[in-house]
């Protein structure tokens, strides 16, 4: 009976060592980049609130807001305590909605003393911009924040147009400061402070 050739030859052992050590090295290197993994849950995390951000908002920033608990919807509405509310003219101001069931937060522009649709005019010394808005879903309200945020930072003057009539909107610095504060608090709640 002829002698069998050994399966684990010295050359094969060298190849296995190279493969095993390089594989372990790659696993070790990629373990440092674990935060870059894909999100395959299929959930929209646009409005997701982390526990630490929620606790900070509720216990620190939330003190500046008037809270309204909506038991029918299972949500809490946060309106800034220094917002300007007029009894005759329309007011258009954002509020923050916290949904503890889904652990999400939304921004919502509340229109008082009028009905949708509205048009917001933003004016600087040589530029006039505008955006039309009809009451929509959470994403529509967030998109409106993204549209008007650069105008607010550039100190534009605003008007609210409803049914052909124009009303001053966020006309004094105090109102603009409150508006900026609400937006900053909302983005911090979503852990998007760089927006």
How much helicity do the residues have?
25-40%
Distance between the termini: 78 Å
Q: How is the main sheet built? A: 4 strands, antiparallel
Roughly what is the average pLDDT, rounded to an integer?
Answer: 86
The domain count comes to 1
Shape annotation: elongated
- The oligomeric state of the chains shown is single chain
Number of separate strands: 8
Q: Determine Rg (CA atoms, Å).
A: 27 Å
Uncertain stretches of 5 or more adjacent residues: none
Beta-strand content? 25-35%
- Written as H for each helix and E for each strand, in order along the chain, the element string is HHEEEEEEHEEH
The order of strands across the largest sheet is 1-2-3-4
Secondary-structure-derived class: alpha+beta
Helical segment tally? 4
Topology, please?
Elements: H1 10-31, H2 51-59, E1 65-70, E2 75-80, E3 91-99, E4 104-112, E5 118-123, E6 128-133, H3 138-153, E7 157-162, E8 165-169, H4 173-189
Antiparallel strand pairs: 1-2, 2-3, 3-4, 5-6, 5-7, 7-8
């Amino acid at each position: 009976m002829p002698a069998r050739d050994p399966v684990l030859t010295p050359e094969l052992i060298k190849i296995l060592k190279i493969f095993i050590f390089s594989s372990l090295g790659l696993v070790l290197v990629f373990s440092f980049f674990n935060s870059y993994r894909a999100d395959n849950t299929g959930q929209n995390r646009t409005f997701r609130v982390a526990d630490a951000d929620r606790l900070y908002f509720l216990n620190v920033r939330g003190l500046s807001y008037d809270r309204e608990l909506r038991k029918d919807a299972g949500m809490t509405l946060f309106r800034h305590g220094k917002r300007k509310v007029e009894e005759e003219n329309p007011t258009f101001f954002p509020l923050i909605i916290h949904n503890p069931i889904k652990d999400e937060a939304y921004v919502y522009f509340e229109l008082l003393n009028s009905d949708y649709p509205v048009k917001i005019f933003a004016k600087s010394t040589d530029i006039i911009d505008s955006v039309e808005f009809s009451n929509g879903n959470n994403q529509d309200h967030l998109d409106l924040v993204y549209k008007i945020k650069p105008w607010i930072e550039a100190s534009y003057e605003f008007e609210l147009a409803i049914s052909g009539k124009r009303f001053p909107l966020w006309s004094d610095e105090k109102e603009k400061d409150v508006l900026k504060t609400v937006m900053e608090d909302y983005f911090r709640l979503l852990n998007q402070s760089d927006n």
